[in-house]
From TrEMBL:
Domain Activator of Hsp90 ATPase homologue 1/2-like C-terminal: 28-157
InterPro entries linked to this entry: ASHA1/2-like_C (IPR013538), START-like_dom_sf (IPR023393)
Pfam family, one: AHSA1
Source organism of this protein record: Ferrovibrio xuzhouensis
Family, per entry: Belongs to the AHA1 family.
Protein name, per record: SRPBCC family protein
């Protein structure tokens, strides 16, 4: 899949807003099971994606250091939301580090570095999700991204 081109329009003032947020969840599952929900294609399909009713238009999943994950989709007839990630560090059952770009149609709206850490807590797992992002030209912001990430992590918990 080729990635969308960045918007070339300069009819507005360019701005880059930086933010970091951290979300924690405790799941009633082992670290290996939570890790598998990220690493296994079928398991990830159960929780990672847009709201019910969104149409998926393209997908790629290569979970390995140097691999790429790509999703595009959106409401029928509406804007396409594109997630284009590259994996940089994977320690099974412990840590995942990836960088990703988000687009609305062909406009890049953010670039982020994300770290997912898994720690055992008895028979459960504490997941710590930290995102460091730059949100471009006010198309998106940290608050909305944090809410969306929390929603996905709740869906992850339901899938476990």
């Amino acid at each position: 899949m080729s990635k969308p081109a960045a918007s070339a329009s300069t009819s507005f003032q360019r701005i880059a807003r930086h933010a970091t947020f951290t979300i924690e969840r405790v799941y009633d599952a082992s670290p290996s099971r939570v890790f598998a929900a990220f690493a296994d294609d079928g398991a990830k399909l159960k929780w990672f994606g847009g709201p019910d009713g969104w149409v998926k238009t393209a997908r790629e999943f290569d979970f390995r250091v140097g691999g790429r994950e790509y999703h595009s989709g959106g409401p029928a007839g509406g804007q396409q939301h594109v997630f284009d990630a590259h994996y940089y560090d994977i320690i099974p059952n412990e840590r995942i580090v990836y960088a990703y770009e988000m687009y609305l149609d062909t406009t890049r709206i953010s670039v982020s570095l994300t770290t997912v850490e898994l720690k055992p807590e008895g028979t459960k797992t504490r997941l710590t999700f930290t995102e460091q992002g730059v949100f471009l030209d006010d198309f998106d912001g940290a608050k909305g991204r944090e809410e969306g990430s929390a929603w996905l992590l709740d869906k992850l918990g339901q899938s476990l």
